User: Which sequence fits this backbone?
């Protein structure tokens, strides 16, 4: 009887020793998800915008993008961000009096300034997955050109034939992904689809040019790719 009892106790101790390490090992399996503690971030961005130039081709064609953005996490997957930047590029100077295919008479520098606010919706909520956060952002603001008309526009074209950007609504939507390198530093890539409106110079509607159905304005689009370095706190 005593021998049987001793055998039972010994078996139980051996079984416990074998099982315990497995339980500890199971508890140490790391989760691919990690909660994001920091709620704010700021950093510069750079990239390129390719834009459509409109029916007659005098609109800005895009260019190098530089700027900065600030964001604050609200709750769950939602964040609010604001961005301001510039797009350095060119546009064609187009003369409506010339025949089709030969209307471009020069180029003008463009310095578009964009100011907008966006909502960002994260796929992983307030967590990262292996340090990654895929998201969708959408919002709007304003865009305007700070460059003056060129000399060739002022001397060759009539005043009502000169294209002027003015201040326009600027809307953007697109996906992106953010990689949290450390708690305080992240990198981000965005693909953006944007819309804005350009006005048609009044002179382009003159019947002598023979353009059918000239609208007073039209919507044009742009596709951008940007990268950011973000500092979080």
Assistant:
């Amino acid at each position: 009887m005593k021998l049987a009892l001793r055998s039972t106790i010994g078996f139980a101790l051996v079984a416990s020793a074998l099982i315990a390490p497995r339980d500890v090992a199971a508890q140490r399996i790391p989760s691919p998800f990690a909660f994001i503690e920091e709620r704010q971030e700021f950093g510069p961005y750079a990239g390129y915008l390719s834009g459509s130039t409109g029916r007659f081709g005098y609109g800005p064609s895009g260019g190098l993008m530089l700027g900065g953005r600030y964001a604050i996490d609200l709750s769950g997957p939602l964040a609010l961000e604001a961005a301001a930047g510039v797009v350095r590029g060119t546009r064609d100077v187009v003369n409506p009096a010339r025949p089709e295919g030969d209307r471009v008479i020069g180029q003008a520098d463009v310095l578009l300034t964009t100011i907008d606010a966006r909502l960002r919706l994260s796929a992983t909520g307030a967590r990262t997955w292996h340090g990654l956060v895929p998201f969708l952002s959408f919002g709007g603001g304003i865009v305007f050109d700070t460059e003056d008309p060129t000399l060739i526009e002022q001397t060759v074209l009539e005043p009502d034939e000169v294209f002027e950007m003015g201040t326009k609504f600027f809307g953007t939507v697109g996906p992106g992904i953010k990689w949290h390198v450390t708690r305080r530093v992240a990198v981000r890539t965005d693909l953006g689809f944007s819309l804005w409106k350009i006005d048609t110079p009044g002179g382009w509607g003159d019947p002598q040019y023979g353009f059918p159905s000239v609208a007073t304005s039209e919507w044009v689009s742009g596709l951008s790719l940007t990268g950011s370095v973000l500092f979080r706190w």
In short: The radius of gyration is 30 Å. Residues 1-5, 11-15 have pLDDT under 50 and may be disordered. The chain has one domain: 32-232.
